[in-house]
DNA sequence: ATACTTATTAAGTTGACACTTAATTAAGTG
DNA sequence: CACTTAATTAAGTGTCAACTTAATAAGTAT
């Protein structure tokens, strides 16, 4: 699931779309009006974003309002943080430091 | 710059590489040994990750040790959070809610 | 200098995917 | 029911990037 989310935000155009609807939900055509590409292209992007759990649709008549889905971004945030996690990294770095010193002393045999 | 970072973590293989070196720096060949793909392929991935500021190299003789670069992940984290930002989103949602109610009352004219 | 190790750069191939236009679905309106 | 609006699905095309093997670079040792 995190894979689809990351794949989704890969495409710059999709990130632009996310930025647009971040300030409030918009219809597919409203979104399309901000770009030079065709409506189907936008529709395809929205589908990818929806499948990734990053946007939600609200249907109203013939219109479909797209808005961002917070839970999806929470997952992404968590994923990035799993790399970032400060305390864990410090531990690893300390271990590396130690190993480096050990190797140095071994080379003095 | 954030674009290159996002592009970099797009590729599943590169994320695998990041996971590997997250537990301590490794040489190019050590990384390659964990995968089915060729050494040059790994080298190319590492170059992308380095250009994105997500990894750093430490040269030691003919070997090159690759380790993760924290600052790069900090940027990524910030970017994701710029979407996520809780308080801002709540404001937007409140505004939408209001607009929706306004439209409903208008349709009762 | 020659050889060995580690890793990269070069060049070329293949598959994925972001587009296009055309056709289709779905909901509302005269 | 025909017609309009809003959006999607279908089908096909071109570009990009992830891989391959071959050649090159840079460091160390014999």
Task: Explain how this protein is built.
- The structure is a homodimer of 109-residue chains.
- Chain A is an alpha+beta fold.
- Chain A has one domain (1-109): Winged helix-like DNA-binding domain superfamily/Winged helix DNA-binding domain (Arc Repressor Mutant, subunit A, Orthogonal Bundle), CATH 1.10.10.10.
- Chain A has six helices and three strands; from the N terminus they run ααβααββαα.
- A three-stranded antiparallel β-sheet of chain A has the order 1-3-2.
- In chain A, α1 (2-10) runs antiparallel to α4 (39-51).
- The radius of gyration of chain A is 22 Å and the shape is elongated.
- Chain A binds a DNA duplex (30 and 30 nucleotides) through residues 11, 13, 27-29, 37-45, 47, 59, 61-64.
Topology record:
The structure is a homodimer of 109-residue chains.
Chain A (H helix, E strand, L loop, with lengths): L1 H9 L1 H11 L3 E2 H5 L6 H13 L3 E6 L2 E6 L1 H15 L1 H21 L3
Antiparallel strand pairs in A: 1-3, 2-3
Helix pairs in contact in A: 1-4
The first copy, chain A, binds a DNA duplex (30 and 30 nucleotides) through helix 4.
């Amino acid at each position: 699931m995190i894979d689809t989310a990351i794949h989704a935000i890969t495409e710059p155009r999709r990130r632009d779309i996310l930025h647009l609807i971040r300030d409030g939900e918009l219809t597919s055509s409203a979104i399309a009006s901000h770009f030079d590409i065709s409506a189907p292209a936008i529709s395809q992007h929205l589908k990818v974003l929806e499948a990734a759990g990053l946007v939600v649709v609200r249907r109203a008549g013939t219109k479909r309002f797209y808005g961002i889905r917070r839970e999806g971004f929470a997952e992404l945030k968590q994923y990035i943080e799993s790399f970032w996690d400060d305390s864990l990294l410090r531990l690893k770095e300390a271990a590396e430091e130690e190993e480096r010193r050990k190797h140095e002393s071994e080379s003095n045999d």
